[in-house]
Predict the structure.
Amino acid sequence: MKTLLCIFSILASASLFAQTTVSGGIYANTTWNLAGSPYLVTGSMVVFPNRTLTIEPGVEVIVSADYTFNTGNFIYLEVRGTLIANGTTNAPIVFTSTDTTAGFYNWEGIRIKGSQGGTVQMNHFELHNTWYGINNDIAQPGVSYVFDECYFRSNQYGLQLNADMVYNNCIFESNGAGQAAQISYGTLTATNCQFLNNFCSFTWSNYINVNNCLFSGNQNNIIGSPGVIQNSQFYNNTFGMTEISNITVNQCVFDGNGTGIDGSSTCVITNSTFTNNSIAVKIGDASTVSQNTITDNAIGVQVLGYDPNTTSIDSNLICNNSVHNLENLTDKNYQVNLNCFCSQDSSVIENGIFDGYDDITRGLVNYAIYDDSCQTVVSYVTKIDLGGPAGVTVLDEQWNTWYDGESVVIENNIPGIFSIYDIQGSQLINTTATAGLNKISLSLPQGLYLVGREGGATQKVFIGN
């Protein structure tokens, strides 16, 4: 009886540690199941056209690591037919290596030969230690990949797919680039994802939509990608975002970064918090920085570009930044009267603003002094006449607008149709203004409003005491 029990024990142990060795071509429809897992890949494999490799949930695929550091020797899985690898939340499929050392790329990855009709259906999986990740030899306009609860770790490139990519609850950790540049085609949508300790999270997508994601410990997070980022956190990165334009950032947190946002042009940054960054925000032309809290950084806001008058910095709290609250890095003059610098001492505010008073190659900056509530202007500091009343930046030489304490005033050289909007963009009034001074009496709460001329520029006006 003891001998029989011993035999059963040995058989059970052998079954528990079963391993299937595979390599070469897949010439017939094949399934890798849990009973044969793990599958040890000892040589490159090809799924031939009109054939399907199905990998069941929970299966582990382990590729023999290459130590020559010659990528031409790396083992790969090539798909000229179809790969179906759909795991589940509780049983993800794992593609990994015999050596899972962090940052060690020792097999090539999954090649999709789209030019030969190759396709993949993948979800709920992990991918580790590849050089090229999941890649396709053709662009796929109109094709969308949806990845749920996937984990990309220690890959040189996690994915190189010129298609529309959707990531839900995914993790990208310790990769060279989580998603590589989508040069030919493609967008990126990420929701509830984490990007941790990557050299770069993703680069040069044609459009991104990022919501409720965490970016922490990365060198370069988001590079050169237009789109929308909201409700996300950026902690302890070298760059939160860099080389970006045509981007909207809303309700995000930037803490402990080298540079929070390094933007070139057409950046809209609103309702966000910047603390403990070396540089919180760098912006160029045609940008808006509004209703943010920018405090306790080394440098709060740097303004670059050819025409800072197209850039609006308003309704922000810009305080206690150790080097400067604001740096004008252009030779143009402009003003920031709709921002609070948390002091009623003009010398304190002046020391926090770097402009032509500090370096004659720079332009001058006008500003306002607010009371302790940061709601009421105590006085204006006007270093240079910019052609309009205090608090106004002229954006269009044909017209100008301001609040005179009772009415919105429009000074219009050419008759036109004007509208007044609240900060959310809801139209409050539409009126025709004649040439000369036009006064529009409104009963509105104190705050920031927009005045726009039909077919022309939009200016901001602060209505208050």
User: Anything to note?
Assistant: The longest helix spans residues 2-16. The chain has two helices and 48 strands. The helical segments are 2-16, 346-351.
